[in-house]
Design goal:
It is a single chain. This protein has six helices and 14 strands. The chain is α+β, with helices and mostly antiparallel strands. Among the domains are: 79 residues, Carboxypeptidase-like, regulatory domain (Immunoglobulin-like); 115 residues, Ferric Hydroxamate Uptake Protein, Chain A, domain 1 (Beta Complex). It has a five-stranded mixed β-sheet with strand order 8-13-14-11-12. A four-stranded antiparallel β-sheet has the order 3-2-5-6, with no helix packed on it. The protein is globular. The N and C termini lie far apart (73 Å). 20% of the residues are buried.
């Protein structure tokens, strides 16, 4: 017959075994759950002119300041990035700072290729060096006189619109500027994008008229990004008088890397307002 001390000892052993198994299993769930809340960005950075990899580029998460640096092949990897629309800065010697906005989903690993354009001063220095290099035709080149030409530059819209102007020059996507809105007297956003290639307007019901891309499935409406932030509520209702520029990308294949993500499959409408996003509320 077991003594009372033996029964107490066996009971204590069972309790310790149960606690041990619970302690072993508990930590496994926490890291997996945490991983799903973040995204990863992998990429390669090349020179836009030479297409060669750029070494030592800092890829910075604007919101947190964390960064990764490209290796000798121009490759980098950034982990544990908060999901959502995130702005990144690319900085490297000899290149102007470039900003990119990407839409990252939870648990997503995005792979992108990025190009940097060398600073104008460096390009001018290379040209000057080649002009000073002796060659058989150098005397003839120096003897030429070019007629005076008046150069008229288009004034910049400001630093806040530098990404908009950069994409406008590439011709990728479709654009509506404030000048065009005023020239044609558009009354609302629907009027401004009506007639653009690949854009359909659906009217009817309590929601009125909605923008839908012609290649999108029924009920699949574009993602709206207002001043760099996703906003599908305010976006379709922005007053046309407040708009500085509009970018329209009709399908996922047209969307640039800045706006690529799980919500871009139905197209993307990017709106830049004159005043920009409201400032964050002040803390008491």
């Amino acid at each position: 017959m077991d003594s009372p001390q033996s029964r107490v000892l066996r009971l204590a052993q069972r309790i310790l075994a149960t606690l041990f198994l619970g302690a072993v299993g508990a930590p496994l769930a926490s890291p997996l759950a945490a991983q799903g809340a973040f995204a990863t960005l992998k990429g390669v950075v090349t020179d836009a002119r030479s297409q060669q990899p750029v070494t030592g580029v800092r890829v910075v998460i604007a919101a947190t300041g964390r960064y990764a640096t490209t290796d000798s092949l121009g490759v980098f990897e950034l982990r544990e990035i908060p999901s959502g629309v995130i702005r990144f800065f690319f900085t490297a010697p000899g290149y102007p700072r470039t900003s990119v906005v990407l839409a990252l989903a939870k648990g997503e690993t995005m792979v992108q290729r990025f190009e940097l354009e060398a600073a104008m001063a460096e390009s001018a220095a290379v040209f000057a060096e080649s002009a000073d290099t002796p060659s058989a035709d150098s005397a003839a080149i120096r003897a030429q006189r070019l007629p005076a030409t008046e150069v008229i530059g288009v004034p910049s819209r400001g630093v806040r619109y530098e990404d908009f102007e950069r994409r406008l020059k590439t011709g990728r996507g479709q654009y509506v500027t404030r000048e065009l809105i005023e020239e044609r007297g558009y009354n609302n956003l629907i009027d401004a994008v009506r007639g653009l290639r690949g854009v359909a307007i659906e009217c009817g019901g309590s929601r009125g008229c909605l923008v839908r891309m012609a290649r999108a499935l029924p009920g699949c409406y574009p993602q709206y990004i207002v001043d760099g932030r996703p906003d599908n509520f305010f976006g379709p209702n922005v007053a046309v008088r407040d708009i500085e520029g509009i970018e329209v990308y009709a399908g996922a294949s047209d969307v640039p890397g800045e706006f690529a993500g799980t919500d871009a499959g139905c197209g993307v409408v990017v709106i830049w307002t004159r005043n920009g996003p409201p400032p964050p509320p002040r803390r008491p």
